[in-house]
């Protein structure tokens, strides 16, 4: 096990109350999973690529998910399409400049900032709200489900990358 069950921050207390709480709970679970997979690693380890020629690394995943959070919550739901996408010129966050502790800290700060913003958006937005999702109408619930899928897929990548780095597996 990655962590003892009683120390896992992803474990919720009691059953969820309704559809929104359930969806947001799953989204939070996967956000925390990616953070756990990055925990305790050096900048060099976070930049380690999984399997050549793939450029997927844990730090790249953090940067990519900051970009995804920004795109869906700021640009689409909040209708700020004029905002430039994060890491636009850096292969969606996966192409890394020189990696050091400052880049790691900056990348995590951006990701955490986008998550905080998304949480605020979700607090005040109904699941039935319809937005223009890149040319197609979509309910906010569909966007949350997409975000869960996006994190779940990339947490699978994170599992493999972390195992390649130090052999650590689990949860």
Automatic annotation (TrEMBL):
InterPro entries: DinB/YfiT-like, MST-like. This is DinB family protein. The lineage of its organism: Bacteria, Bacillati, Actinomycetota, Actinomycetes, Propionibacteriales.
């Amino acid at each position: 096990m990655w962590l003892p069950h009683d120390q896992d921050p992803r474990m919720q207390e009691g059953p969820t109350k309704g559809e929104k709480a359930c969806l947001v709970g799953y989204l939070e679970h996967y956000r925390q999973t990616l953070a756990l997979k990055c925990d305790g690693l050096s900048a060099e380890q976070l930049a380690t690529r999984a399997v050549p020629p793939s450029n997927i690394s844990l730090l790249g995943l953090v940067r990519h998910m900051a970009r995804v959070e920004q795109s869906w919550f700021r640009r689409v739901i909040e209708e700020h399409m004029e905002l430039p996408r994060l890491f636009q010129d850096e292969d969606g966050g996966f192409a890394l400049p020189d990696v050091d502790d400052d880049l790691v800290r900056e990348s995590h700060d951006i990701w955490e900032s986008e998550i905080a913003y998304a949480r605020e958006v979700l607090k005040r937005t109904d699941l039935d709200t319809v937005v223009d999702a890149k040319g197609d109408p979509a309910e906010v619930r569909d966007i949350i489900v997409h975000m869960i899928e996006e994190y779940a897929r990339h947490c699978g990548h994170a599992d493999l990358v972390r195992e390649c780095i130090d052999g650590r597996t689990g949860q």
